């Protein structure tokens, strides 16, 4: 089962890419894709989806503030809020009906829900969180999951420095759909081709881009994709009518993969999926009008890789594009950097790592979450901590996978009750569950998964020999 949320097109595009990868595997019998907003109330859907884009248009500074405010890891440690919980009921019913073996989330909303269901023992499926931007954002972190997939190696390093176990974090790239016509390629004999995109919903910035290209001195052709914005398409068609031999104006198209492989330079916003598709096609980018927060950070990464340039003023867009086109060596270097950055097999890698990976979820206790948050706010690497507040991992003896991340002080209680002679723990299902504290009951329910006992070993800075004493 693949769960997404239609806040923009990127999350659903990633879900479609994973669905496509499922069809290539013989061990997957059935796939169901669900946009969780489509089964929620109209009010909830409008507040999240339409409200977000209204803020992007009118109050972008508020989007940036919200992104930064929600970025610290595990800032939100409680259960999902009541309003979200009520709107999640149709999703829970859909999961119970389908009874999936594995669930992939391409948005943080269903990821938060799945963590709650795992800890309550409602589901027994393997769960994956698949991020859809190049920079990791703290909202994606949850208290229980099987695998967390990030877009780049720096994100994996960041999460492991926070204390998350290395066996649960993978850098796979952002899932994109496979190109059905991979033979399409650039034609180096003609002038460079620009691919100017207004995004799926359309954006007025595209008109400013096209207007600026009319003043460029370099030879070029341009394909302009206006998305679902018919009014924008008509305005641009009228704008380029005097030079129609150089411009090809489209509305919404399902052929973006082929267009990207034929183009020499992309001009548009650095959404996670768009950027990932460009990199997989070896297509460098001229970034315009990025959304504050995730798209700014996406752009920073692409420029760091040498695969993009950014234009911060509408008055210089044409000049910026011209500077790249007039330097063929630079353009080829940017194309090579994009090709090197691309991860076209991300969806396949996500499925393989999830289905072949650990069967038990990783549980991060609330005390461990607080340690990670506090360390992050003090700019301390959580894995360097020692003493009662340091992080300790419980490693399942059979699979060798990390099943719990907790504070050292929490381990003392478990050792008193479940310690063995060799320093391991044998966690047992209690006949009287009320003898355990609430947090311990959640931990046991997720780790034992219906079994009576589980043997684990202890790893962590406070337990170098596998034990921890009070």
From TrEMBL:
GO process annotations (BP): glycolipid biosynthetic process
Domain spans labelled Glycosyl transferase family: 224-340
InterPro entries, sorted: Diacylglyc_glucosyltr_N, Glyco_trans_1, Glycosyltransf_28_UgtP
Domain Diacylglycerol glucosyltransferase N-terminal stretches: 11-176
EC number assigned by the record: 2.4.1.157
GO CC annotation terms, alphabetical: membrane
GO MF terms held by the record: hexosyltransferase activity
Alphabetical UniProt keywords: Glycosyltransferase, Transferase
Pfam families in UniProt: Glycos_transf_1, MGDG_synth
Domain of life, source organism: Bacteria
Keyword Transferase attributed: yes
Enzyme class of the recorded protein, top EC level: transferase
Family: Belongs to the glycosyltransferase 28 family.
Protein name (database record): 1,2-diacylglycerol 3-glucosyltransferase
Source organism: Paeniglutamicibacter gangotriensis Lz1y
Lineage of producing organism: Bacteria, Bacillati, Actinomycetota, Actinomycetes, Micrococcales
Gene: ugtP
């Amino acid at each position: 089962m693949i769960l997404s949320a239609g806040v923009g097109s990127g999350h659903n595009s990633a879900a479609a890419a994973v669905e496509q990868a499922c069809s290539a595997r013989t061990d997957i019998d059935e796939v169901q894709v669900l946009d969780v907003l489509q089964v929620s109330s109209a009010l909830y859907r409008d507040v999240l989806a339409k409200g977000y884009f209204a803020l992007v248009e009118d109050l972008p500074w508020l989007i940036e503030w919200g992104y930064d405010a929600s970025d610290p890891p595990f800032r939100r440690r409680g259960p999902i809020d009541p309003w979200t919980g009520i709107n999640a009921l149709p999703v829970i019913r859909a999961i119970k009906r389908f009874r999936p073996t594995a669930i992939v989330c391409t948005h943080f909303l269903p990821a938060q829900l799945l963590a709650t269901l795992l800890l309550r023992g409602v589901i027994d499926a393997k769960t994956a969180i698949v991020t859809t931007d190049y920079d990791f954002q703290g909202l994606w972190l949850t208290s229980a999951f099987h695998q967390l997939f990030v877009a780049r190696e720096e994100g994996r390093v960041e999460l492991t420095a926070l204390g998350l176990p290395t066996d649960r974090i993978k850098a796979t790239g952002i899932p994109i759909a496979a190109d059905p016509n991979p033979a399409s390629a650039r034609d180096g004999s003609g002038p460079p081709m620009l691919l100017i995109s207004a995004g799926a919903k359309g954006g007025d910035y595209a008109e400013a881009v096209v207007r600026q290209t009319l003043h460029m001195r370099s030879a070029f052709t341009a394909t302009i994709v206006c998305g679902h914005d018919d009014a924008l398409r008509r305005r641009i068609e009228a704008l380029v009518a005097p030079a129609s031999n150089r411009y090809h104006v489209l509305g919404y198209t399902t052929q973006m993969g082929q267009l990207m492989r034929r183009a020499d330079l992309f001009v548009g916003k650095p959404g996670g999926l768009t950027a990932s598709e460009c990199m997989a096609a070896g297509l460098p980018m001229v970034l315009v009008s990025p959304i504050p927060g995730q798209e700014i950070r996406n752009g920073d990464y692409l420029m760091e890789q040498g695969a993009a340039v950014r234009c911060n003023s509408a008055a210089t867009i044409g000049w910026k594009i011209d500077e790249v086109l007039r330097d063929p060596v630079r353009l080829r270097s940017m194309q090579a950097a994009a090709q090197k950055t691309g991860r076209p097999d991300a969806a396949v890698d996500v499925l393989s790592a999830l289905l072949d990976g650990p069967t038990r979820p990783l549980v991060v206790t609330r005390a461990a979450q607080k340690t990670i948050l506090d360390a992050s706010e003090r700019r301390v690497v959580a894995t360097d901590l020692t003493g009662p507040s340091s992080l300790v991992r419980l490693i399942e003896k059979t699979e060798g996978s990390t099943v719990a991340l907790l504070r050292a002080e929490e381990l003392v209680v478990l050792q008193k009750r479940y310690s063995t002679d060799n320093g391991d723990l044998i966690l047992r299902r209690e006949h009287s569950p009320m003898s355990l504290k609430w947090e311990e009951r959640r931990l046991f329910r997720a780790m034992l998964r219906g079994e009576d006992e589980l043997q684990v070993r202890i790893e962590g800075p406070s337990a170098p020999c596998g034990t921890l004493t009070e």
